[in-house]
Amino acid sequence: MNDQKQEDLKPRRFAPLHSSTAPLQVNKSTPPLKGVVFDVDGTLSALEIPKSVDILDHIHSLPEKEQQIAQEKIQAIERRAMLVQKPQAGLLELMEYLTERGVRKGICTRNFDTPVNHLLTNFMPSQLFDPIITRAFRPPKPDPAGILHIAKNWALDDGGNSLIMVGDSIDDMTAGYRAGAATVLLVNEQNAHLARHEHTDLCITRLDELVSILEEGFVGQVDRSEKNPETKQMATEALQDF
């Protein structure tokens, strides 16, 4: 939907959320941030489900009778992994900050409902995420449909252009990019190469790094007017630990 618009954009920017400066800095080049959409596995939680195989596409390619059996097997694996689910570093600090600043939060994940509810109930019981897009929603990431559904639910008239998508996979970055959202990669040893991907606007190594970034005004690292954007300074610094 917004791929052609994205090509015309300079580095993505949002006005600072700092209450004393934000009203003065909102303009066409630095619009207000309207919300943040989060992935779950590997982003909000440290639970890591292998992503080398597109398991959802594989399941949906099976004969109908086999799909339910395959879904049940995958869900059993995810339920066992859920028992050792841990919150990512800086999770509560970021969520409390977004709540304080009145920034809406949504979830767009390829997981199913139970592990998502487990995470929210055990680690963020006071935080509101709405809407929550899970595996039942079709088509899944990297299609932008889930993010655009969230934008529509929030009555935004610019698709995902006033949103940030935070994730840890190429599916997250591509879905955000295609929806028109700015993208933030939570970088780790396995996904560090994505810092150089054209769909990645910014890299962080822990979630609460976003607090100061949003407070002072989000500025992406990628100039999308370039045909071959280079990795910018923050991506380089994020990769030094891996």
Produce a short descriptive summary.
The protein is an alpha/beta fold. 37% of the residues lie in helices and 10% in strands. The protein has a 6-stranded parallel β-sheet, sandwiched between helices.
Q: Main sheet?
A: 6 strands, parallel
Q: Rg, please?
A: 17 Å
| Spatial strand sequence of the major β-sheet | 3-2-1-4-5-6
The fraction of residues assigned to DSSP E strands is 5-15%
Task: Assign the structural class, choosing from mainly alpha, mainly beta, alpha/beta, alpha+beta, or little secondary structure.
Answer: alpha/beta
How many extended strands?
Answer: 6
Between the first and last Cα atoms, what is the distance in angstroms?
Answer: 35 Å
Weakly predicted, low-confidence segments: 3-8, 225-232
The percent range for helix content is 25-40%
So how many helices? 10
Q: What is the ordering of alpha helices and beta strands? A: HHEHHHEHEHEHEEHH
The chain-level mean pLDDT equals: 83
Shape, principal axes of CA atoms = globular
How would you describe what is shown here?
The protein has helices spanning 3-7, 22-25, 55-61, 64-82, 91-100, 113-123, 145-153, 170-179, 209-216, 233-239; strands at 35-38, 104-108, 132-133, 163-167, 182-186, 202-204. It is α/β, with parallel strands linked by helices and 242 residues long. A six-stranded parallel sheet has the order 3-2-1-4-5-6, with helices on both faces. The model is unreliable at 3-8 and 225-232 (pLDDT under 50).
